[in-house]
């Protein structure tokens, strides 16, 4: 007989997040909205072998990239016909643009996602430079663009985090007595940016023992 396993609140939270991600993948409802890494020469082969020119109807299409119109990870791809008397061509960008509120100019979705990725693993701009080099791709967005987007992603993350914690707290309250204040079990844990006593930044989280969801977080800094 196996001994029952006791999961700590943090492990419960990680399990919840992983289950949600796997459910989203399994539902498959958003495949059309994925970003994919694709080798350009393979794309060229498939294009010229299977697609015909919009005008002369020949298998004479080729790809070209206008690097001056590239915006970080967002590329401008031109498809054109190589037939002597045909001038057909079309171009498109590899990412849509996201604007917030009344902004007249937004940021390409792929750039926002890549900055969000770097932040999520506690890294910065150089990680994206490294990423591009390893993929044999052109350089990513510039450092000033990275800083601007990282700041906006930080604001948005804070907003979503606060909403999520209020929702999690209401869930705990509804499952227990309605007294104010009420008692509930939490697991409190902290972490520092660096080992030893030299770190200037730390974070403390309170996770519900009942639901495994984060109820509160506090970032501490003496910088
Ligand atoms: Zn043509």
TrEMBL record:
<dbReference type="Pfam" id="PF20700">
    <property type="entry name" value="Mutator"/>
</dbReference>
<protein>
    <submittedName>
        <fullName>Forkhead box protein k1</fullName>
    </submittedName>
</protein>
<dbReference type="InterPro" id="IPR049012">
    <property type="entry name" value="Mutator_transp_dom"/>
</dbReference>
<feature type="domain" description="Mutator-like transposase">
    <location>
        <begin position="36"/>
        <end position="219"/>
    </location>
</feature>
């Amino acid at each position: 007989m196996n001994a029952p396993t006791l999961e700590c609140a943090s492990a419960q939270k990680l399990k919840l997040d992983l289950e949600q991600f796997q459910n989203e993948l399994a539902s498959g409802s958003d495949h059309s909205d994925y970003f994919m890494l694709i080798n350009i020469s393979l794309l060229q082969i498939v294009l010229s072998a299977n697609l015909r020119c919009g005008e002369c109807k020949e298998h004479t299409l080729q790809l070209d990239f206008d690097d001056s119109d590239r915006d970080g990870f967002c590329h401008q791809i031109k498809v054109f016909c190589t037939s002597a008397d045909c001038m057909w061509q079309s171009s498109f960008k590899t990412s849509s643009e996201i604007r917030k509120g009344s902004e007249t100019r937004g940021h390409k979705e792929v750039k926002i996602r890549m900055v969000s990725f770097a932040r999520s693993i506690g890294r910065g701009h150089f990680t994206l430079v490294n990423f591009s080099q390893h993929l044999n791709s052109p350089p990513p967005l510039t450092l000033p663009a990275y800083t601007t987007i990282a700041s906006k992603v930080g604001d948005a993350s804070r907003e979503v985090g606060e909403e999520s914690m209020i929702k999690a707290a209401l869930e705990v309250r509804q499952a227990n007595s309605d007294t104010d204040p009420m008692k509930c079990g939490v697991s409190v844990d902290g972490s520092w940016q660096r080992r030893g006593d030299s770190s200037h930044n730390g974070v403390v989280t309170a996770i519900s023992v009942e639901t495994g969801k984060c109820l509160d977080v506090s970032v501490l800094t003496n910088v």
